[in-house]
Here is the input.
Amino acid sequence: RDFEVAAFADLRKAEAGDACGRCGAGFEIHRGIEVGHVFYLGTKYSESMNAKVLNENGKEVAMEMGCYGIGVTRMLAAIVEQNHDDNGIKWPMAIAPYHVIVLPLQTNNDEVVAAAEKIHDELVAAGIEVILDDREVRAGFKFKDADLIGIPLRITVGGRGLEEGIVEYKPRTADDFEKVAVDAVVERAIIDVRTALMG
Here is the structure.
């Protein structure tokens, strides 16, 4: 009794090929991620704030307002959605929490710890953002955590490798590591980080 139906319509979700109500062309369907927004506010807030401007006739009118924004957390979620695999995140270098993670495998081996700390310190001195995972846990935990967190470059220092003068070097996006000379790995990481950051 309090409501009168003005019109009846068949409503459904638009699908690919449906005609556009404005131009008649068929719709295309694409996936998207909303990271920014634009809202038209009209005069709702300007009227309550008595915010006015002069129109073309010199008459005071309430401002037409809108708001625009980018959601930082939405951007991070979108980046992770586009850059991950079954093992975790694959941060792009420009926004990674660290550029490089250094993993000393045997924290009870003074040579391994010293080599890892030297690599860490030289990278820091070069302005590279690096983290040293010196936890006393098994290698598998360190590898899994490094992949899960998604640090772009991983340098693994182990006792056997040091005997050969090498460390393992693995970009997060690579399927496998490569052996790099201990005395060359810092320069390699610097070049890779700077190249990725430039572009």
DSSP finds six helices and eleven strands in the chain.
